[in-house]
Amino acid sequence: MITRETNNFINCNFIEGEIILANKPFGWSSFKVVYEIRKAIGAKKVGHAGTLDPKASGLLILCTGKKTKEITKFQELEKTYTGTILLGKSSPSMDLETEISEENSLEGITRDDVLKIRDQFLGTIEQVPPMYSAAKFQGKSLYKLARKGKVVDRIAKKITIYKFEITEFNKPEIHFKIVCSKGTYIRVIADEFGKKLGCGGLLSSLIRTNIGQYSVEDAVSVREFIEKYKAVTQI
Asked: Counting beta carbons within 10 angstroms of the beta carbon of residue 178, is it exposed (0 to 12), middle (13 to 18) or buried (19 or more)?
């Protein structure tokens, strides 16, 4: 497994199959990370175990070669996120990818209100995938339809929120830590949280810190990975 502490890649065979803990930078799509790694190592098979939105950063597990058969195993693991919900503002994408569409007052909203709403998300709940997502509708990504102004019916799916901690509440921001099952859209939680409070809300920052026992602290940046790989292959 390739991590931040991997000193060299001499004994690695990326064509045959390796697992890489990558730290996806803010502003990059998950596909761009896969593309850059694939281009660097020259492997045909490179995939990731769980999409991160461009406006999010953090742990992305990549599998190459025969290790791509293990992607499903990583996808099934619980995920841990930290981030910020911005209250009083809403957007079509439920985050800052699209322009603010609505603004409301936060007058009267207290920490107790926030904690009561938080409790409603704990356990197994149903969640409808957002239009701005990579989920498919008749073979097309929802976000492609959303960018054309189209809205289609989506089927709600069951997800599980194992932990939902409010680490800080300083209006208009709610800082949180969430441990959840696969397929959970944190943007949807932010949007619904704001709606339940009656003021609206969107996801203003997000970091995936863990996938199961794997941590972003052990992940290598894409730039560092490419530099190390080039250093070894040029020997």
From this structure: buried
Look up residue 51 and give its two tokens: 């999409």
Sign of the CA dihedral with 87 first, then 93, 97, and 101 last? negative
CA pair distance 205, 176, nearest whole angstrom? 10
- The residue extents of the domains of the chain are 19-76+213-233, 79-211
Active-site entry in 53, 119, 153, 218: 53
pLDDT digits (tens, 9 = 90+) for 44-94: 999 999 999 888 999 999 999 999 999 999 999 999 999 999 999 999 999
Contact indicator for 177, 57 with CB cutoff of 8 Å:
no
CA angle 51, 185, 152 (to 5 degrees): 95
d(CA 89, CA 99): 10
Is 3.90.950.20 the CATH classification of the domain at 79-211?
no
Per CATH, is 19-76+213-233 categorized as 3.30.2350.10? yes
Q: Is the pTM of this model over 0.85?
A: yes
95 counts as catalytic: no
Give the model's confidence band at 233: pLDDT under 50 very low, under 70 low, under 90 confident, else very high.
Answer: confident
Q: What is the pLDDT of residue 171?
A: 95
